[in-house]
Design brief:
The chain has 323 residues and is α/β, with parallel strands linked by helices. It is 36% helix and 19% strand. A hairpin with a 5-residue loop joins strand 2 (36-42) and strand 3. Helix 3 crosses helix 4 and helix 6 packs across helix 11. It is globular.
Amino acid sequence: MEIFASHNLDEEIRRQSSSGGIFTLLAEKTISLGGIVYGAAFDSNWNVIHKRIDTTHNISALRGSKYVFSDATKSYSNVVKDLDNGYKVMFCGTPCQIAAMKKRTGDNPRLLLVETVCHGAPMPKFWTRYLTELLADHSLSISDIRTINFRDKSSGWKNYSFSIQFTNNRKIIQRHYDNPYMKAFIHGFTLREACFKCPFKYPDGTKADITLGDLWGIDILAPSINNDGGTTLVIIRNPHTVSQFGITNFENSVPLSYSKVVSHNQSLLTPTHRPIKYDKFQKEYNITKSVSKLFTKYTSLSLLTTLQIKLSNIICLLKKGSE
């Protein structure tokens, strides 16, 4: 098992990516070999689905985290067809989606399974309702949306924001700790029940060839490449399959030890804790008139915690300004 930190040398791609833009490098390499790439994307109604692409021009649709459990139903059978037709295929998804694909295909040297480090996947119903209410509150519609970004880095990688850009150049943007949807996700209230007992964690549960995620703890683990632009934690578990895709080295990388990485990235090892009020939240969701207010009600922080977060953000900004 090889573990390291890395990021894309193309600063624009890195800016558009949730972490360090390594997914894009893998996708570009796969397509350059005449292969196919599958990953999470938005459909025309801003639902999250798995999409098939075969040109580098379309990689941008798969770039960036979507904090909604994607519908990959059609992709499972389509990947099998692509493999039967002789294509190399890269499939990227949550650990449970990777396990489902592995069950369908078995070991296949033409299939590269890439998982993302997973905190848990929110049920689509919460995203659909939140977006519908948000648009109604601003007298806007689905057709007015230009882009949605769950990990907008305009305020930094560590201090990211949720943002929606509209066709009239209007923009809604909130830091992740202020946005109701993101707070409910981080606190675990919108996750599927299965996420709290996820069996696909390291070291033995994962079925992926490569794992990608944010390198939290970068200040300690890889300070030489830390500039708050986003850095990817890369874990290669199946070097043979990876080499079949011509992926032999990563530029600007720093080797890491497993023990140090997991101490700062617990989502690799353990599922998200089930909130004490999870059942109560689910029942109240069915009768609430405002899902945003419900999210806020169950995720409100104490005044002390709020002040600590704001102080931490001020310190980060001061450090950034002095660099």
